[in-house]
Write a structure and sequence with these properties.
By secondary structure, this protein is an alpha/beta fold. It is about 30% helix and about 25% strand. The chain folds into two domains: about 35-260, Alpha-Beta Barrel (TIM Barrel), CATH 3.20.20; about 270-395, Lyase, Ornithine Decarboxylase, Chain A, domain 1 (Beta Barrel). The protein contains eleven helices and 18 strands. InterPro entries: Ala_racemase/Decarboxylase_C, DAP_deCOOHase_LysA, De-COase2_CS, De-COase2_N, Orn/DAP/Arg_de-COase, PLP-binding_barrel.
């Protein structure tokens, strides 16, 4: 059904608050036995999946911390009400400015990904007269069995520290003024559909924890990352309860606090992209529908060949036959196709389509390519909705640019 008060502008995103809340609560048993060290929460939502302040606030009110990878995400998390000590600052390329901001804010953990980053963080911490709590991110050389562009734990990927180098770098961290080593971190990729890659990566982390403790170094927590997949089409990812049981087994074996960083799983099914048909045409042997949403609104199909369900908002009359249809946007790129060969009923200009499961890596990857303003975003609660990001207008779009005086 259409939420009360809905008026359909050009393409618009809608996020369902209740669905985010329901899915978040399913994670709680996975970490309830793991007491948070220094008030750090055990579920840290990965803000890169969807950085809207209303979404982050929803998760904060449910008890989530956050995984951040930039100074901008740090500011968003704080503004949404997540305390700094409940933040994990991840990512392989933290700038000195970002480190200083995070240290001054009191971020709860830095996931360090290289010797150079460790030294830079130590320098920044000493300059502020403080200590940075550090977990070294392990690259376990495990194939996540996912799309190549979102696999992050193989040898040669830009992420993490080779597992064979962890012991020496942990010793260096323990000796560095300004650094407090607290544990290890690992994240091998996104949209995983089997537990086996997680198990392989976590076994390597367990071995490293045992080796570090045998050498006399304390390891109080492990950050197990995220990556559990969702069903877009015919994927069969394991249930979150099975993943939670794996986390608990790992935690019990080595007696640590386990931090997990779900992102896509929490928010992907809660998002819908609404788009209106502009024109219907024949493209060779197939019907092609041009809509007002495009690859700049939803990059995943163009970038990853990702599949999203597409269906008419108005339910077709009983018995209406469908035709295989390409759903394409107006951007001047052949890649600007939201879906190919979709069985859709007869459509006409003005009809509204819903693109499903866009709550993760949708708006965060949007751009203004072809000088197309960013879409509006609303949050649905029951049969009511609220604007959570207004549609960008042309004045705002053009206001970003400056023309030098010598071109006047």
């Amino acid at each position: 059904s259409t939420p009360r008060g809905f008026r359909s502008p050009p393409s618009r995103r809608a996020s369902a608050r209740r669905r985010i809340a329901t899915r978040t609560r399913r994670w709680l048993p996975a970490t309830r036995r793991s007491p948070p060290p220094r008030r750090m929460r055990c579920i840290c939502y990965s803000i890169k999946a969807n950085d809207n302040l209303a979404v982050i606030r929803t998760l904060a009110r449910l008890g989530s911390g956050a995984d951040i990878i930039s100074g901008g995400e740090l500011r968003r998390a704080l503004q949404a009400g997540i305390a700094a000590e409940q933040l994990v600052f991840a990512g392989p390329g933290k700038t000195r400015e970002e480190m200083e901001l995070a240290l001054a804010s009191g971020v709860g953990q830095f996931n360090v990904e290289s010797p150079a980053e460790l030294e830079a963080l130590a320098s920044a911490a000493r300059a502020q007269g403080t200590q940075a709590p550090v977990a070294l991110r392990v690259n376990p050389d495990v194939d996540a069995e996912t799309h190549d562009k979102i696999a992050t734990g193989r040898r040669g990927d830009k992420f993490g520290i080779d597992d064979g180098d962890i012991a020496a770098l942990y010793a260096r961290a323990a000796a560095l003024e300004g650094i407090e080593p607290v544990g290890l971190a690992v994240h091998i990729g996104s949209q995983l559909s089997r537990l086996a890659p997680f198990e392989a990566a976590y076994e390597r982390v367990i071995d490293l924890v045992e080796d570090l403790r045998a050498a006399g170094y304390p390891v109080e927590r492990i950050n197990l990352g995220g990556g559990l997949g969702v069903r877009y089409r015919d994927e069969t990812p394991p249930p979150v309860e099975a993943y939670g049981a794996l986390v608990e087994r790992v935690r019990q074996r080595i007696g640590v606090t386990a931090i997990i960083e779900p992102g896509r799983w929490l928010v992907a099914p809660a998002g819908v992209l609404l788009t209106r048909v502009i024109a219907v045409k024949q493209a060779g042997e197939r019907r092609c529908v041009i809509v007002d949403a495009a690859m700049n609104d939803l990059m995943r199909p163009a970038l990853y060949d990702a599949w999203h369900a597409i269906e008419p908002v108005a339910e077709p009359a009983p018995g209406v036959s469908t035709v295989e249809t390409d759903v394409a946007g107006p951007v001047c790129e052949s890649a600007d196709v939201l879906g190919r060969e979709r069985p859709l009923p007869p459509l006409a200009a003005g009809d509204l389509l819903a693109v499903r499961d866009v709550g993760a890596y949708g708006s965060v990857m949007a751009s203004t390519y072809n000088s197309r303003p960013l879409a509006a975003e609303v949050m649905v609660r029951g049969d009511a909705l609220a604007s959570i990001r207004p549609r960008q207008d042309y004045e705002t779009l053009l206001a970003r640019d400056l023309v030098p005086s010598w071109l006047a």
